[in-house]
Amino acid sequence: QVQLVESGGGLVQDGGSLRLSCAASGRTFSTKSMGWFRQAPGKEREFVAAISWSGDTTYYTDSVKGRFTISRDNGKNTVYLQMNRMKPEDTAVYYCAAGKIFYRSSTYYSPNQYDYWGQGTQVTVSS
Asked: What is the distance between the alpha carbons of residues 21 and 44, in angstroms, rounded to a whole number?
């Protein structure tokens, strides 16, 4: 069983930065693929970024490439999402998720492949 707790959300101005953290319980964090998803009001949950269990491979949705960076510290059981040059369209509830070791890159993008989810943290970007 893995429990995930996000933190770091808040209100930021257009062009600003935030860093989200997701702390995981359990001894199996280092064997988990980790992802960040977001859900805006009235929209479906969408993929934002993901990182392999070892941290050597990362994936991003096109709209955040070059602005967001996902990373992990397996010693601290934590995954991060550094968000720079933020835009009002980044406004959403952000969720971190944990899954098994994924062997196909396409798996990282699907929320159905993740087994554990955090409660979410609100991110609001004002224009």
From this structure: 22
